[in-house]
Specification:
The protein has 165 residues and is α+β, with helices and mostly antiparallel strands. The chain has three helices and three strands, in the order H-E-E-E-H-H. A three-stranded antiparallel beta sheet has the order 2-1-3, with helices on both faces.
Length: 165
């Protein structure tokens, strides 16, 4: 019964439960299953658009009572919010799942601040990765014969990223 968050696969941590504890157990389990399925799709369940890299998500119920995971495009359409999240296309070491501490009750402001801090860290990391990719391309080009136009284009791109003076 691996789909049940209380009975995980041996050796795996239990899946997080998103539905609020005040809901009846059966409804809470149903909502959690639906949320986990929706999160795996990586699309806004309201409008169907793909989540953008380094963007916020909101999970909960819409005005009709349907379980939704909304991207930034449709956050305002979530009537009852169960949680906020952050979507990233890339896997970062600093975003690895840690053991949860259920006794910690963060305020909405603290959660929003934490997500903003992660977004900033991801944006800075992405910029470094992009700069590094351009630097590697320049190095690879310098190590093999290339036409002058290709080299000029790479140098301009590198300078536009602010990595060269």
């Amino acid at each position: 019964m691996a789909d049940d968050p209380r009975n995980p696969i041996p050796g795996q941590a239990p899946r997080p439960e998103f539905a609020p504890s005040w809901l009846p157990r059966q409804q809470r389990c149903r909502i959690n299953r639906q949320l986990h399925r929706l999160l795996q799709r990586e699309v806004c369940s309201v409008c169907g658009s793909l989540f953008k890299h380094n963007s916020r998500t909101t999970s909960g119920l819409d005005t009709q009572g349907s379980v939704v995971v909304a991207g930034e495009c449709c956050t305002s359409r979530v009537a009852v919010v169960f949680g906020w999240g952050l979507y990233s296309d890339r896997h970062y070491d600093f975003l690895l799942r840690r053991s949860s501490e259920p006794n910690i009750k963060a305020t909405n402001e603290q959660i929003a601040d934490a997500i903003a801090a992660y977004q900033k860290a991801i944006a800075e990391t992405d910029k470094r990765l992009d700069d590094e990719a351009v630097a590697h391309a320049l190095f690879d080009t310098a190590m093999r014969p290339a036409d002058g136009e290709t080299l000029r284009t790479l140098v301009k791109k590198y300078q536009a990223n602010g990595a060269a003076s």
